[in-house]
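Re: that chain you flagged

S.,

Sorry for the slow reply, it's been a week of failed gels. I finally had a moment to sit down with the sequence you sent. For the record, here it is as I used it:
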Amino acid sequence: MAGIIAICSINENYEKEKLIYNIFRGMQLLQHRGKAFWKISSGQFYIEGYGSLPPFNPVEEEIQKQKKNIVNTATGYLSKKKPKHQTPQGINFAADGFFIDMDKLSTHPLIKNNKNIEPIYQIYFIFKELLLERNDSYKAAEFLDRHLRGNLIISLNDIIYVFRNSTGFKPLFIGEDKKEQFFIAISENYIENFFNSLKLRETSPGQLISFDLKNGIKILTQLDRNRILMDPFEFIRESHVSSIFNNMSIYTIRKNIGRLQAEFLSKENVDINMIYAEPDYARPMALGFNIEYKNKKKNNIVEMYEGVIKDRYDDSDHMIDYSEQVSKNKLLSNGKTLKFIIEPLTKDKDVTSIQGTIQTGGTILETIYYLRKAGAKKINIIVSYVPTIDGRQVGLYTQQRDLIARKYIGKIANINDINDKIAIELGADKIFYNSSEILSKGIGVPESQLWFPEWIRFLDYK
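Prediction finished late last night. Pasting the structure tokens below so you have them in one place:
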């Protein structure tokens, strides 16, 4: 998925450097949502790059070169991978989520002679035609809602248009900073703590909103909300731990997910001496699991360690394809790995690794290899998420066939079976995936309000 931000200055004399810097600052705070590709746009101005955001200096140099192209609105975009569809220069367009039925856009009557243009530009063209030429904001929002699962920001004629899909699939917030004199739309609300006088509110699902210098923030239309269907992976990895949902921090929610898994698995015959959180974002789940499991299994000694860690001392991010390849190349070329094992702690022990998710299985295979090499007696894997069979579940741009659990779609009827089969496949002693029921309880919303592929929704423990 992605991190998105848009700012509209409400001061005609607003410094262009300050506008772009505030976008840049917001993007720095959203880097956990994507480190592979970034782009800043304002009018005809744009700058983009790969990997983590650079210092502001090169951006400032580009501002001086393109200063006459900058207007009073700007957008920022961060992604785990460079988007497949390019947007033409001058079209400031940022999306967090994914599009569906793109192949049907060429049959839309408003496309006319533009059938061969990029699908993203077709979205832009149809939306602009409905909103500006036909002055029908409801139809423009309805059109986006048919094809978008997530949020979209478009800048047109110095006006920012913000749309949140009617299911509320991805979080989105808008607000105003009276001191800095700007309106803002952004992916997460924890950003509020880093601007002096910024006040944010959640955008209602199905709303199309505009903000500009003349009219301020304006709700253009509100679609009927048939069903809330949020992305559950926001609560596992995507959202920052400081973001707030239902008056709880994401950190608290993640601890609760681990606690409920421990409550369920404490009834199973699982030998656990120590718990590792891997990768780093699984630490709250591991902590919640550890506290609850010790409470339930009073005779067992359970300790939580961070002996198996990735992404802490290296700028790679295993959610990014090319960074994962860099890590593998390091391993192949010089035998080094991003992981390390504290051997005196693992030798002859029953080790449990808390994983956020298992996608292709490459990361956990490497972990199991080094744990076996360090003398671990048993290796159990607890997965905070449900089996991943659709890359859109976790914001991946990967081939579905690469997902390790996908081959079992329709062939097994419960989580126990998939646990057993993937444990054998990966060489673990036991694997325990989460169920959609336990995950939804940990988040604190009904299962029906979270988006899971149909087969996953009906998988449960025996």
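What I noticed first: Residues 2-228 form a domain with the Glutamine Phosphoribosylpyrophosphate, subunit 1, domain 1 fold (CATH 3.60.20.10).

Talk soon,
D.
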